[in-house]
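This section describes the prediction task in plain terms. A model, or a person checking by hand, is given the sequence of a single protein chain and must write out its three-dimensional structure as a string of tokens. No templates, partner chains or ligands are provided. The sample shown here is typical of the held-out split.
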Amino acid sequence: NTNEGEIMFIDKGQLLSSLTQLYDTQITQAVSLYSHPGMGKSRLLQEFSQERTVLYFKAPALPFEEIFSLFQQLCIRRLGTSYENTKKFADIFKLLSKDSVREPVVLILDDFVNWTAANRRFPTMLSSLIQRADPKSRLFVLLCKPASLYEKESPREAASFLLEPFSFFEMRRQYPQMKFEEQILLYSITGGVPAYLQYFPADCCVREKLRELFFTADGIFYRLVEARTREYYSASSVMRAILSAIGTETKKLQEICDYTNLTPSAAGSLLSSLASRNLVSRIVPVTENQGSRRALYLISDGIFRFWYTCVLPYLSEIEVGEGAQVFEKQIVPLLEDYTIRVFPDICRDFLELEEKAGRTPFPMQRIGRWWGQHPTKKRTEYISIAAYSRDNIMLGACFWTEDWLDVDALYDLQKHASLFPDEEQWYYLFSKSDFVSGFETISGNHVHVFSLEKMCRMADEYLSSTI
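The expected answer:
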């Protein structure tokens, strides 16, 4: 049972299980946990800390000596006067290590980046202390870091985890009484971010909550976007222009430059800054590496995307108390189209689960979308769902329709086959409704079809089996 606004704990990506398995090895070690704000890190740490001896320290952005002093004072308060004589971090670590021989100790260093910023040699020193620890010690060091460092640092670490938002199928388990359309609308707004979902109780009407949160002058999300923009950026007006330029659609770098009058170099730098805060994503075709020059940009934070699309044009009306009228007349008629845009993301979420369950015809190492120039037609082709692995490619299409689909939907997708002459091709079709009887039998074993109801059923079965 949960209180109103409280999100039921779901072991996203089985992180709690993985942390527990590492803890149970009973050796001194360091594990890194990467997360953007609002992804449920605090809740995960609370669940992990239950019935364990834990020392949690959140490092402020201060000089190293002051961080150490605060850490030392915490140790004295929590663990006793034996820590009063420590002069440096190594002394505290040795005492913690000694204490952990009798009973395992979890040391959580939150905002670890502040330790590193204050002393660049600190991570190396900590690693050395762990390597030289008493073989009998059982000190579990959990380092909490920003997700923007994950790709750079995690390949060099023995154990690291990235805490991500809930997929659609994980999110909907918290709203079992909600209709599909309401669940999808909720997902399109929140992106599955736990910090946002807490404002939507399980029995709420999503539309009523949107009006309250976005279209009143004191609405939490109405104020949140402006506050975060001012907090993060000195050039907030330029950042607003970039986010406004992107809106709900993916945009090329040049399109953003044309809208903002920025140079590609300046726009690229600002987009990287937005990406580091999980507000913008840079996506490339699944067959290309991250350095591709054919990148597209999108607003990855659902709250920001909705605000810049549906709230920004009506700030004046909202400020004078006319937000409810704006919502009913201007926004409600747009919500279905807004919801439809997230359906391909839901289908990609499903493919991620299918890959984890081992049910895909080949290892789908990269799941996303594909676009590129047709070699003979001299036009850009776009495939909304695609997955790639060596010698194999999956081409997908999704349909938000009440009509049952027949093989014509497959034929349209197979027209792209000539773009990938060297790969074995697989075809996945997704529909809000369903497919005519015998669709897969007629189409062959390289074709797979899924209705929304079937995806939800299969996802529920898989997620239930992993609890």
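For orientation: The CA atoms of residues 391 and 421 lie 10 Å apart.
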